[in-house]
Each structure stands twice: as C-alpha cells, then as structure tokens.
Input
Amino acid sequence: MSAQQGVSVAGDIAIPLIVNLASNLIGFLIGALWTSRRRTQNLRRRRSKIIQLLGFVVFGLASAISASLIVRWNESPWLGIVLLVAGVLVTSGGLAWPYLKFWWVGVGGVDLKMRTGLHPKKALRSCTSGLSFLGTGASKLTSNADTFAQTVAACTASGNTVRLLLSRPDSANLRTAAQRANKPEEQFADAVKGSLQVIADLKLKRKFDIEVRFYDNATLFRLMFINERVCVFSYNVYGTEDEMAVPQLFFSKDASKETKSFYWGFERYFERQWDDAIEWNYSDFI
Output
C-alpha cells in the first residue's frame, strides 16, 4: 500500500468517525434537553452520568467504525448515513430511558431551590384557570399582592374557585415552630394573619371566588396545584434564613390513567384534607 493510499484509507475512516461522534453528541444533547424540560434538574447520580457518557463514547466509536468500513467496502454512502441516523436515535433513546421512567409516573422535574426555579410569583403567573394550595399561611403567594390578585381574578373568570387550605393563626403548632426557630412566639401567626387580610379583601371587597379552610394537624409539606394539571411539592422549614432555598418537585397529571401518576395521590390527599377542614368566615383573626 502506497503512502497516498494509506492516507486515503485513514481519511475514509477518520471522517465518518468524526461525523458519527458529532452526531451522537447531538443525540446526547437532544436526549438530555428533552427529558430535562425547562426546570428539570438531573435526577440521576453523578456515577450514572459517567456510565451513560462512557456508553455514549463506546457506541459512537463502534458505529463510526462500522459506518466507515461499510462505506468503503460497498461504496454506498447511504448505508453510512443510515448508520449515522441510527447512532443518533439509539444514543438518544439510551440516554432518555432512565428519565422516561420518572416521566411515566408523573415526575416532571425538580428545582434545587425555589428561589431560582418556579418561585411563588412565577407559579402564580402559571395559574390561568385553577389554583388549589396547601400550606401554612400562603404568605409567599399573598406577598406578591398584585400578581396574586391577577391570578385569583383569572381563576374566577374561568369559573373555578381558588382554594387555600391553611393553618389557623392561633394554632399551637405555629407557636412551637417559632420557639424552635428562636423567633418571637407570634411571628408565624402574624404572617398568617397578614395573609388572611389580603385574602379577605379580595373576597369581600372585590368579590373574587376564593375560599379558605383551616386544617387542624400540622402539615410538613406544601402542595400547589396549578390549573388542575401540575402539582408543585415542597416541604416546610420554619425559621430558616432563606425559606426560598428549599427544593421542589413537580408532578404532572396523567390524562389517560389518573392513578398512573403521583399527582393522583397528592390530589386525593388534598381533597380529603379539604373535606375535613373548617371553613373560614373572613372575619376571625383580622
């Protein structure tokens, strides 16, 4: 074999190799972006990432070498193109598979921090036709007074009642939480009362369709249902310097089979708590 022929053979192998690796990299990025969606962070461990990346490299090398040899032996570029496309599809599917399992049970994503993800103001803007909430006092929502009012107005216009399931301001649990956090005993209760005042104004003065009920037992987590399609889950940490630093999980409702998604379980829990709760008269505590 002459030097020129050697260069030709090397080029015949190297060019498809580079092209195939590039196409597989595109497939890797497509798979990662598609499964992550906007607010989804990686739900796998770092070790899993490394294993997936190594698998991507090995598959890319194997398919690239196969493509280059077939093109050279058969002088048919179409076979090489088919292998390149197959490489992208298989790589994307392989990378997407671990994430699809979460998606199939309704896990739509996670925010490492509420502040940098779907923060309360952004969540309110997402509510165009429905809002149900379980939390301590909804103060993170009502503190964005204008946005909260716009959300309640939009839900009222859609014919849906905004439902807020909150703690009673005089609950012993709030006083205990304040003591544990080394805060003034009435600090958390006062925050709930301030939130109730905002809600009462929207209900009584602006005639918006909003209902508040009080639960008896302390709840350790927070649920927000957006448009009866998405549930935002987070947990309560009282007295921290940055209460917006808690993570959040997102669950999507399955239109074909409700019980297939974790959304169904959280929705049933909310409805049971709502049925057992006591309706507020919009005058007590304010």
Observations:
- Confidence is low (pLDDT under 50) at residues 35-47.
- Strands lie at 107-111, 131-134, 162-167, 210-215, 221-226, 230-235, 248-252, 278-279.
- The first helix runs from residue 3 to 36.
- The chain has two domains: 3-104, 110-279.
